[in-house]
Amino acid sequence: MDRVTETMKVAAADGSGETQKDDARRGEAVLRCRDFNVRYGSAPDSVRAVDLTVRAGEIVGLIGESGSGKTSVAMACLGLLPKQAHVSAETFEVCGTDLVAADGKALTRLRGSEVAMVFQDAMGALDPSMRVGRQIGEVVARHRGLKGKARQNAVLELLRRVRVPEPEHRARQYPHQLSGGLRQRVAMALALAGEPRLLLADEPTTALDVTVQAEILRLLRTVRDEFGVGILLISHDIGVIAQTADRVAVMRDGEIVESGAVEDVLLRPTSDYTGMLLGSVPKLGDRAGRRPAGGGTDPAGAPLFAVDGLSRSFRARGRVVHAVRDVSLRVGRGEVLGVVGESGSGKSTLAKMLVALDQPSAGRLEMNGADYGRLRGKRLKAFRRAVQMVFQHPAGSLNPKLRVVTSVREPLAAGGVTGGEARRRIDEVLAEVGLPPETAGRLPHEFSGGQKQRIAIARAIAARPQVVVLDEPTSALDVSVQAQVLDLLLKVQQAEELTYVFISHDLAVVQAVSDRVMVMYAGRVVEIAEAEALFASPAHWYTRALLEAVPSPDPRDRPESGAASPPDTGDRPEEARGCAFAARCPRAESRCRAEAPALSTLSAGHAVACHFPADREGPE
């Protein structure tokens, strides 16, 4: 009889079986490391003298930058380190199994049934060719021995317990048919299918929007409480750890430099390194280091960009999907315009149209008064030099076979700059982004993530553009590296007199760099205002939901219980009549579901698309 079936039968008898079982397990050590070390080949130890304990019914956060050894610890717990890795420890036990002495059979028995992992990229962890219900069912059959109807019921119960709406319908879908949040919930169900006692969560929210991230953090706490498992939560996001973990350990260069209760470590750090990490976190309301509002733009001057009635539609599976709908805006010279919104809101599609990598289905774009649609020949080449883009993943945007000097020279050559003049400009921009001259002769794989992003920025500014569109330029970076890149972007923006369109789902980052902020939802602009006004008094209920979902780095701000939120269905909301946000809005009335609100002026420089703006409601 499997553990879930046994628990459910006892619970049915006296109503308390599951609670009794969880209470018995709670507090039991499911991971114990003492003097734990990992060495790769003949190199020095990359993980050194780690002491770490995770108990059933608690979440232990593991914070550290890339290369600190966090993932090595997690993979060692599964026995999945590379063959050249050598593990030594005074004690290294997972659910009572000594992993230093365990053979292949013991590790196979351990994986899934005692310890399981939730990866950062749920799409990569799920089989794209199998329906999600079948994938979970295979784990249930392997570890619990259930077949037929019993297996099907167990799959549906797991999906319900990880808060997947309509589990019968979702079980029949493929991973690509689910939203990011639903895929991560399915990945959680897959990890829990073998009833593990230890769950390893490696950056499970990094790729998610702030509202979906908040749902997954609530889910992790629910899994801890309802399943009674111990969770090792690995993240470089201090807000995620602050809002989720019971205890925390901070890693640097393979060593734990500080550990303790989450409030002790994050509110009263004793390590200089922990203090540096906390100081690097951009916080909502913290305007330190930000340019004065207006950023030197001339409100009375002609806009650099003028966008009128811009729309972009695609055909998908026999229906029309509206990625961008009727967007109009003006961007001034020297301005930093922040663009925020969840995945699917239209941010990246808008960015591609701004740099002429995609053509609108309707509407008009102008730069310096020239219509995009009429640019040909030399005028088009001049436009390409004037508008550049920095992408989210520098490793993917840099040619791995080209040395840095060649990558940075390409936009110069396209503009007719060659020879000694090109080389002088390359040296100049590399110095400007903080890279030494010898960087020019190296290949991308020889650099860290932050250095690669600096190279991408150098390439974007080499041809002296007027505008740089930045699409999530810091979301893949560690918190300290992110702070360095943000400082660099502001410095370059002022030195080169650039105009930025800065796209991100991280509201604290957007507030730190932007003069104005535009909020998009389901392809539409729902609010636009000066950054200070928007963050101080958001008028659209969606903007408020985004701000409320930002995980605070202060553990005292943790909600007592997970607030109920509309289920993440994964369906595109713009197909609904009326306001696309009505199904999620706490203020929605019948008018909202029948009539789409137009973008209207609320006050000078502040426009909102809402029938019942929040700031007209008075104090809550």
UniProtKB/TrEMBL annotation:
<keyword id="KW-1003">Cell membrane</keyword>
<dbReference type="Pfam" id="PF08352">
    <property type="entry name" value="oligo_HPY"/>
</dbReference>
<comment type="similarity">
    <text>Belongs to the ABC transporter superfamily.</text>
</comment>
<keyword id="KW-0547">Nucleotide-binding</keyword>
<dbReference type="InterPro" id="IPR013563">
    <property type="entry name" value="Oligopep_ABC_C"/>
</dbReference>
<feature type="region of interest" description="Disordered">
    <location>
        <begin position="550"/>
        <end position="577"/>
    </location>
</feature>
<protein>
    <submittedName>
        <fullName>ABC transporter ATP-binding protein</fullName>
    </submittedName>
</protein>
<feature type="domain" description="ABC transporter">
    <location>
        <begin position="305"/>
        <end position="547"/>
    </location>
</feature>
<feature type="region of interest" description="Disordered">
    <location>
        <begin position="1"/>
        <end position="25"/>
    </location>
</feature>
<dbReference type="InterPro" id="IPR027417">
    <property type="entry name" value="P-loop_NTPase"/>
</dbReference>
<dbReference type="InterPro" id="IPR017871">
    <property type="entry name" value="ABC_transporter-like_CS"/>
</dbReference>
<keyword id="KW-0472">Membrane</keyword>
<dbReference type="InterPro" id="IPR003439">
    <property type="entry name" value="ABC_transporter-like_ATP-bd"/>
</dbReference>
<feature type="domain" description="ABC transporter">
    <location>
        <begin position="31"/>
        <end position="278"/>
    </location>
</feature>
<dbReference type="Pfam" id="PF00005">
    <property type="entry name" value="ABC_tran"/>
</dbReference>
<keyword id="KW-0067">ATP-binding</keyword>
<dbReference type="InterPro" id="IPR003593">
    <property type="entry name" value="AAA+_ATPase"/>
</dbReference>
<dbReference type="GO" id="GO:0005524">
    <property type="term" value="F:ATP binding"/>
</dbReference>
<keyword id="KW-0813">Transport</keyword>
<dbReference type="InterPro" id="IPR050388">
    <property type="entry name" value="ABC_Ni/Peptide_Import"/>
</dbReference>
